[in-house]
């Protein structure tokens, strides 16, 4: 059997957008779709690090400040993300509380930690189960959008519950920070190039 | 001719799976190809159905509530306008893009691309449209929004009377059509056809 080989080692580059295989030396633009040709996503590691750090910074205000305030019969209560989950548990909505816990806390944390782990793997050239790491990357890329759940819930509640002092829901400043965290982590996952995990694996040569 | 795996860069001989079969990368397990029967025709039909459904899903009230005799109807847009009223313009924009604009843009792009491929008509924009569709796909979050509606309704059920409007049914239908659309759209085939068409012209 022929040894496994990557396109890059054989002098080929796969176009990021259309998947066309190009001889590395000949073209600067993909002859099919016109996208600029680079073997790996350009500045993948640097961009991912920058986006993760910005997301981490915003993750703090997103959890400290109130994400919404609920007024019922003249009594206003503000909730942080964690406080909102605690309130849900108190009112016996445990499944919903779990759902919000996963979408608003576990998923963003998992994305930030997971991407950091992937970056460490690339930087220190770990000889690991690259298939497992690639799977981790796929999970991170897939679950990212589900963190928007809390933002959508707030937008629906804000629109429906709007009766002045009687009953009103107002979005808090943490909503903006949290929305930014979701967007930044989605971009971070997009800018990471999973092929970097495979490039230094010796056991697959 | 060879192709390369987009996630591990393994050089591969292109597999030729049958309709309904899947071809995975032998090294990292990436789903390389998943050919569908009549992918272009079905994409065309489904995107047209989606474009029709997106109108009532956007304009008709989805969920209404009644608290202390005061009733209120919510559409897809009312969340955006309520957030704007509270000066949360960044969140409002994000909700607008992910629940209204990008689902629409994606349907329009899928419709235009499959129409041109169906009619075998070349167009200078075809490649650009396909590229946009690929990049914008993950930012349209109708299914996340649907889960948001469910959670919001459960939260409100204790304190108010809920009413479901025709907009919600249109939204659910749109959700199903969208899921079928992304299942039927065979981007491998689409790129190959687009490359053939642009070579001819
Ligand atoms: Zn692979």
Strand content of chain B: 5-15%
Number of helices of chain A: 7
Radius of gyration of chain A: 22 Å
The domain tally of chain B reads 2
| CATH topology category name of the largest domain in chain A | Butyryl-CoA Dehydrogenase, subunit A, domain 3
Q: Give, in spatial order, the strands making up the sheet with the most strands of chain A.
A: 4-3-5
What is the string of SSEs of chain B from the N terminus onward? EEEEHEEHHHHEHH
CATH architecture designation of the largest domain in chain B: Up-down Bundle
What binds here, in terms of ligands, is: zinc ion
Topology, number of strands of chain B: 7
- SSE order of chain A, as H and E? EEHEEHHHHEHH
Low-pLDDT residue intervals, each spanning 5 or more residues of chain B: none
| Largest interface summary | A-B, 66 and 62 residues
Number of helices of chain B: 7
Quaternary structure state of the chains depicted: heterodimer
Please state the structural category of chain A.
mainly alpha
Q: pLDDT average of chain B, as an integer?
A: 90
Count of discrete structural domains of chain A: 2
Summarize the structure.
The complex is a heterodimer of chains A (205) and B (201). Chain A has helices at residues 44-64, 81-90, 94-123, 130-143, 149-160, 173-191, 195-199, and strands spanning 12-14, 21-23, 68-72, 75-79, 167-171. Chain A has 205 residues and is mostly helical.
What's the structural blueprint in terms of helices and strands?
The complex is a heterodimer of chains A (205) and B (201).
Chain A: E1 12-14, E2 21-23, H1 44-64, E3 68-72, E4 75-79, H2 81-90, H3 94-123, H4 130-143, H5 149-160, E5 167-171, H6 173-191, H7 195-199
Antiparallel strand pairs in A: 1-2, 3-4, 3-5
Chain B: E1 3-4, E2 11-12, E3 23-24, E4 31-33, H1 39-59, E5 63-67, E6 70-74, H2 76-85, H3 89-118, H4 126-136, H5 142-157, E7 161-164, H6 166-184, H7 187-200
Antiparallel strand pairs in B: 1-2, 3-4, 5-6, 5-7
Helix pairs in contact in B: 1-3, 1-6, 2-3, 3-4
The complex binds zinc ion.
